[in-house]
Write a structure and sequence with these properties.
- The chain is α/β, with parallel strands linked by helices.
- 47% of the residues lie in helices and 16% in strands.
- The chain has a 7-stranded parallel sheet with strand order 3-2-1-4-5-6-7, with helices on both faces. A 6-stranded parallel sheet has the order 10-9-8-11-12-13, with helices on both faces.
- Helix 15 links the parallel strand 12 and strand 13.
- The relative contact order is 0.12.
Length: 417
């Protein structure tokens, strides 16, 4: 039985860890792996579940949990300190638990694993779960200057990790073509190391098309009975084209004034409300609120169409929006802009929505007419869900590919299938 440590530079209570880390570890546990998780926690465990409760819950899922404190002040120095502390800690775990795999989620955790291995007698395999083009994300977002010191340092680290790791995960076929050309056919890079494309998947037990009664109850709660509901899930600002999304919804209301806009977000809720009111929406035409993950599927299934506007730039070729998988899992056709990961090919090729290029009111209206027509087709919800199952199912896609990757990295049969 293989022993692995998953290293993540987020806190265990973060929604991302709850939906995109722990579920994958549960899937790996099905393959017989002995799993440990290291997270970096930004605050003490004073609110919500206690540290003991979290640890006991993870243990019931076959996961040993460890954590270190996350430091934020003096950003670059804090990160360097966390890397140092993480390296020392992981080096100790390699010796203590006789680890076989160090699984790093993105660049910094993989760096911690690679450094810990370098200074250990035991040499576990390093899995570089790349996820996205991290250095380019920071330059595309304007956080780092292009070709600045931090960018150049991050690229040097990335090159070393690409040379030193034993296997790789990317989120999109586009990212695989860029980083590992030719690996789509062979499954390995030019050095024979395994490469897997594993998009952001969802647990279909949490995202289901609800029965008509539950749908009606949710729509009544939103005070949107009889109105087409357009939904957006996630953050605003940064990578997300907030102004363009609101402009699209405003243009849609010109075509159909009944449109109700539902925004499910945990942050900046009042700011979003003010922006919508400034665009001519009345308070009866929209709702902005946060929803617990366990209720997300219920709310999405009460809607009719969904939108996802993300800044089209080089770094986003490696992006797999989780919201896209969640929308489709709940049977919603999607409006999305082009230039983001494999979104174009999926939506257009599978006919589960509309992809567009031009950000202007006339095009918004044309696109809305198309998505409105699509949402009225018989069987569209079932079709969207089937496409989601084929491409984003946590068990059949995510879990199966991770187990295959672990097996190929180890080069033996210890994963149990």
């Amino acid at each position: 039985m293989a022993k692995s440590l998953y290293i993540c530079y987020f806190g265990v209570r973060e929604p991302l860890v709850q939906t995109q880390v722990i579920p994958y570890l549960r899937e790996l546990a099905k393959g017989g792996h002995e799993l440990s998780l290291l997270t970096f926690e930004p605050s003490p465990f004073e609110k919500g579940r206690s540290e003991t409760e979290i640890r006991e819950e993870l243990q019931t899922q076959g996961i040993d949990w460890y954590w270190l404190r996350y430091h934020k002040r003096f950003s670059a120095l804090a990160t360097a300190y966390d890397i140092f502390r993480g390296t020392i800690f992981v080096r100790g775990l390699i010796r203590q638990k006789q680890l076989d795999i160090l699984h790093g989620r993105v660049h910094m955790p993989t760096l911690i694993g690679a450094l810990a291995r370098k200074f250990s007698r035991r040499k576990p395999k390093v899995l570089f779960d790349i996820r996205g083009f991290f250095p380019e994300e920071y330059t595309d977002a304007g956080i780092w200057p292009e070709n600045g010191l931090l960018y150049r340092t991050a690229k040097r680290v990335e090159r070393w990790l690409l040379e030193d790791s034993n296997g790789f995960v990317v989120l999109t076929e586009k990212a695989r073509d860029i980083l590992f050309p030719g690996s789509k056919e062979s499954g390995v890079d030019k050095l024979g190391r395994p490469v897997e494309v594993i998009p952001c998947c969802v647990d279909f037990q949490r995202f289901e098309i609800v029965d008509p009664e539950t749908r009606a109850e949710t729509r009544a709660k939103l005070i949107a009975n009889g109105r087409p509901i357009m939904v957006y899930v996630g953050s605003f600002g940064g990578w997300y084209l907030s102004d363009e999304m609101m402009d699209f919804t405003r243009a849609a209301r010109i075509i159909d004034p009944r449109i109700f806009f539902l925004v499910l977000t945990q942050r900046d809720q009042e700011k979003v409300r003010k922006e919508l009111l400034a665009r001519g929406f009345s308070s009866e035409d929209f709702k902005v609120e946060g929803v617990l993950p366990k209720y997300m599927g219920q709310y999405l299934s009460a809607c009719d169409v969904a939108i996802s506007f993300i800044k089209p730039c080089y770094s986003k070729l490696a992006s797999s929006p989780t919201k896209l998988a969640e929308y489709l899992a709940c049977g919603l056709p999607v409006v999305a802009n082009s230039g983001v990961g494999d979104v174009d090919e999926l939506i257009s090729g599978k006919q589960v929505g509309v992809v567009f290029d031009d950000f202007n009111d006339q095009n918004y209206q044309d696109v809305f007419k198309l998505i409105l027509k699509m949402s009225g087709k018989n069987g569209i919800s079932e079709h969207c869900r089937q496409v989601a199952i084929e491409n984003f199912d946590l068990a059949a896609v995510g879990g199966a590919r991770y187990r295959r990757l672990y097996k190929n990295i180890l080069g033996d049969e210890r994963d149990g299938g």
